[in-house]
Design goal:
single chain; about 400 residues; 14 strands; 2 domains; 8-stranded mixed sheet; 19 helices; Spermidine Synthase, Chain: A, domain 2; 4-stranded antiparallel sheet; Rossmann fold; alpha/beta
């Protein structure tokens, strides 16, 4: 007969108790309360009422813990909009604002490289950007995604991403993007880098001079790189740091405003980029591309061009006081998290917008016209650009008034 001593029996009972305890509720864990809980939700009186609010407004479609992150897909019951949550933070969604960014990032590089055949997309997320790239006449798209759980979650977005992983031209590579760039023999005509925010652990490595240099080395002659950045968590010095680091590798880069006060993209190339308005009009002649851009309210070429906020000269001026961000001096991972819980509009967004406004350029200065008849659109281009400046000024004025 087996005899158990008192301590051994106690350990056995403790283990049984652990296995019998209820697990964490994945819907609550993935709700991102550390990011999205608002103080004006007066219905919240205790943990129980908070749980009821979350479960009455959202539905958990997918949740899995992975080596890299906890990944979930949340559906908002009111309008069926989906969000991809990484450790509770939304990294992609079918919300209108996110759709604009996801679609725009997949199209803007082709304005500069319309004949691109080999493309790399860093970050699968919802798959919308990957689909946008595939709408062009590309031969192969290498999609780098570090998390197998994100690959599984992306399938819930097929209604808006149109099944990009089923496209024969897609080569899904589940691996670290930097590792791939440093080891692959392949070269690309376009690289789209759409990682998470730099305050997330490890993401700072995708905003260093070494990373951008690795990407440049894997570009073919005349190749183009796009790098996304969200400024809502950035102080203006961190924004300048990323800009300075990018133009250190791509000196003639441009900056595009996707969503005012939120999402911006740097676009640079191995050579000086030529911004041909007539090439953009050719893109709009593709029914699939034009319908996608119209869906996200960029239905006219003039609207597209109006999002160019800085040419190379202005971007260099904006970035001049920034420091370089390198692998051995990764300041972003220390600096940016301090901004996460600031009053982000007043302390992050407004200073950044003010700095951008001071040196923003008129896109007309950088336009060329392969077809001279397209010059007739110049008044419309000027009009859209003028309206965007007015919206920026109104936004800053409104946000400043809310401080008082």
């Amino acid at each position: 007969a087996i005899r158990m001593t008192g301590p051994a029996l106690a350990l056995l009972l403790a283990g049984l108790c652990l296995f019998s305890l209820p697990g964490w509720d994945p819907q609550i864990i993935n709700s991102g309360l550390y990011r999205y809980l608002r103080p004006d939700l007066k219905d919240i009186r205790n943990a129980s009422s908070l749980e009821k609010i979350i479960k009455s407004r959202t539905r958990l479609l997918y949740s899995k813990d992975g080596v890299e992150a906890n990944v979930a897909v949340i559906e908002r019951l009111a309008d069926k909009k989906l969000s991809l949550r990484i450790n509770g933070k939304t990294d992609a969604s079918s919300e209108p604002g996110d759709m604009v960014t996801q679609v725009f990032c997949g199209h803007v590089p082709f304005l500069f490289k319309p004949d691109a055949r080999q493309v790399m997309v860093l970050g699968l997320a919802s798959g919308v950007t990957l689909h946008a790239v595939l709408s062009h006449d590309v031969k192969q798209v290498d999609c780098l995604e570090i998390s197998p759980e994100v690959v599984a979650a992306s399938k819930y977005f097929n209604s808006v991403s149109h099944y990009p992983l089923q496209d024969a031209r897609t080569r899904l590579i589940v691996n670290d993007g930097r590792f791939h760039l440093s080891h692959t023999p392949d070269k690309y005509d376009v690289i789209v880098s759409e990682p998470s925010n730099p305050w997330i652990g490890g993401m700072g490595l995708l905003f260093t001079r070494e990373f951008f240099s690795q990407a440049r080395k894997r570009l073919n002659s005349g190749g183009v790189m796009l790098a996304w950045i969200g400024i809502y968590d950035l102080d203006v010095d961190s924004f300048r740091m990323i800009a300075r680091t990018f133009i250190d590798v791509f000196p003639d880069a441009t900056l595009w405003e996707v969503l005012l006060g939120s999402d911006y993209v740097f676009v640079g190339g191995t050579e000086s980029l030529r911004l041909d308005y007539s090439e953009l009009k050719k893109l709009y002649n593709n029914p699939q591309i034009s319908s996608e851009l119209a869906f996200v309210k960029i239905g006219q070429p003039e609207q597209f061009i109006s999002r160019l906020i800085m040419g190379p000269k202005e971007l260099r001026e904006f970035a001049a006081s920034g420091s370089l961000h390198s692998d051995d001096r990764r300041q972003l991972e220390l600096q940016v998290p301090r901004n996460t819980y600031l009053q982000t509009r007043e302390q992050n967004i407004l200073p950044a917008l003010k700095a951008l406004r001071e040196v923003s350029s008129n896109p007309r200065e950088y336009l060329s016209f392969g077809n001279q008849s397209d010059e007739k659109d110049l008044p419309a281009i000027e009009s859209y650009w003028s309206e965007r400046l007015k919206v920026m000024d109104a936004f800053m004025l409104t946000e400043k008034q809310q401080e008082y």
